C-alpha cells in the first residue's frame, strides 16, 4: 500500500509556484494578488482563510483579507464583489462559504467575474469545465486529479466510483474523471443518497472517491483489493484528548481499508492540503491570464 502524501505534494507545488513567481518578479511583473472575503467568525472558515493567506505568503503572492460581520447585507457584499471585479490590482478572489442565511450564495457566486473566479464556482467556469474548455477548476477536484497524476494512478478505462454529488466535489470530480484527458478517461459511477447497491458497486471499483461527509462510511468490505481510495471527508468529531476538542475524520474507515489498497489518502494530510494549493495555482493562472486571455 502506498500512502498518498498530499502534504508533501502540496509543499512541492507551492515551491514550484514560488519559483515561478520570483521569475515573474525578476522580469518586472507584479506579484499575483489573491483577495478573500470572509463574513462572520465561523471557526472552520477562519482556519481555512488563515491557511489561504499563509499559502499566499509561501508562494510569494500578495493577499488581501476583507472581513465583514454576520450582519453585512447582501447588497453590501455584492458591492464589495463589484469593486474587486473592477480592481486591476487583484488577479483573483474568493468569498469564503458558507455565508449567513440572509445572503444568497448563488447570487454571490454569480456576481464574481468568471475571469477572477479562482474558486471555479461560477456557472461559466463549471460549464466550461464540463465541455473541456480552459477554465478555473474548483480546488478540491483539481487537487484530487493532481494527486492521481503525481502518483501515476492509472485512470484510463478504470472503474471509478464517486460517492456524493455535491456541486463543489462530487459532480466536478466525476466530470474530470470521465473527461477525454489524462488523468481521466475513466468509467464513472456517481453514487448518492438515493442510490441502490452502494456496497456492491463500490466493491467493483478500481478507484473510489469518497466525498459525502459521513465519517468512516467506506468500510473494508466495500473495497476491492488493489483499489485506489481518495478520501475527501473532513468531519470534525469530538476528541477530548485534543486541545481543540475535536479531530478530523474522513469518509473512509482508514485503519481497515488501508491494508487492502494500492493507494490511499489519509485524513488529515491527503486531499486537504491540495485544495489550497490548487487555489494558489488558479491565482497564478489568473495573474498570467492563461485561462481568459
Ligand atoms: N468553504 C469550504 N470550502 C470552500 C472553498 O473551496 N471555497 C470557498 N470560497 N469556500 C469554501
Description:
With 293 residues, the chain is of the alpha/beta class. It is built from ten helices and eleven strands. It has helices spanning 6-26, 43-59, 74-86, 105-111, 123-130, 139-150, 170-178, 198-203, 254-257, 271-287; strands at residues 2-3, 33-39, 62-68, 92-95, 159-163, 187-191, 207-210, 228-231, 235-238, 246-249, 263-264. The strands form three sheets. It has a six-stranded parallel sheet with strand order 1-11-8-7-5-6. The protein binds guanine. Guanine (GUN) binds at residues 94-97, 119, 139. Guanine binds at residues 94-97, 119, 139.
Morphology call = globular
Structural class: alpha/beta
Give the strand line-up of the largest sheet.
1-11-8-7-5-6
Mean pLDDT: 97
The largest sheet, given as strand count, sense and whether it forms a barrel, is: 6 strands, parallel
Tell me the distance between the termini.
Answer: 43 Å
Looking at how many chains there are and whether they match, the oligomeric state comes to single chain
Low-confidence stretches: none
For the secondary structure, the number of strands is 11
What compounds are bound to the protein?
A: guanine
As a percent range, the share of strand residues is 15-25%
Helix tally equals 10
Order of helices and strands: EHEHEHEHHHEHEHEEEEHEH
Amino acid at each position: 500500500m502506498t500512502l498518498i502524501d498530499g502534504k508533501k505534494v502540496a509543499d512541492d507545488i507551492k515551491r514550484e509556484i514560488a519559483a515561478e513567481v520570483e521569475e515573474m518578479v525578476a522580469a518586472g511583473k507584479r506579484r499575483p494578488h489573491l483577495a478573500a472575503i470572509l463574513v462572520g467568525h465561523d471557526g472552520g472558515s477562519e482556519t481555512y482563510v488563515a491557511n489561504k493567506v499563509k499559502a499566499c505568503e509561501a508562494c510569494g503572492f500578495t493577499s488581501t483579507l476583507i472581513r465583514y460581520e454576520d450582519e453585512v447585507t447582501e447588497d453590501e457584499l455584492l458591492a464589495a464583489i463589484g469593486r474587486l471585479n473592477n480592481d486591476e490590482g487583484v488577479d483573483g478572489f474568493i468569498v469564503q462559504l458558507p455565508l449567513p442565511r440572509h445572503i444568497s450564495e448563488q447570487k454571490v457566486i454569480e456576481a464574481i467575474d468568471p475571469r477572477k473566479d479562482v474558486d471555479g464556482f461560477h456557472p461559466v467556469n463549471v460549464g466550461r469545465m464540463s465541455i473541456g474548455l480552459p477554465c478555473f477548476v474548483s480546488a478540491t477536484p483539481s487537487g484530487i486529479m493532481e494527486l492521481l497524476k503525481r502518483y501515476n494512478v492509472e485512470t484510463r478505462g478504470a472503474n471509478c466510483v464517486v460517492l456524493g454529488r455535491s456541486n463543489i466535489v462530487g459532480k466536478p470530480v466525476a466530470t474530470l474523471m470521465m473527461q477525454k484527458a489524462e488523468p481521466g478517461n475513466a468509467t464513472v459511477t456517481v453514487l448518492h443518497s438515493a442510490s441502490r447497491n452502494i456496497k456492491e458497486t463500490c466493491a467493483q471499483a478500481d478507484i473510489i472517491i469518497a466525498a459525502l461527509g459521513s465519517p468512516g462510511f467506506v468500510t473494508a468490505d466495500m473495497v476491492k483489493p488493489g483499489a485506489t481510495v481518495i478520501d475527501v471527508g473532513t468531519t470534525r468529531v469530538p476528541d477530548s484528548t485534543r486541545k481543540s476538542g475535536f479531530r478530523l475524520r474522513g469518509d473512509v474507515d482508514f485503519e481497515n481499508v488501508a491494508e487492502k489498497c494500492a493507494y490511499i489518502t489519509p485524513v488529515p494530510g491527503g486531499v486537504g492540503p491540495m485544495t489550497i494549493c490548487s487555489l494558489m495555482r488558479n491565482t497564478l493562472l489568473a495573474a498570467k491570464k492563461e485561462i481568459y486571455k
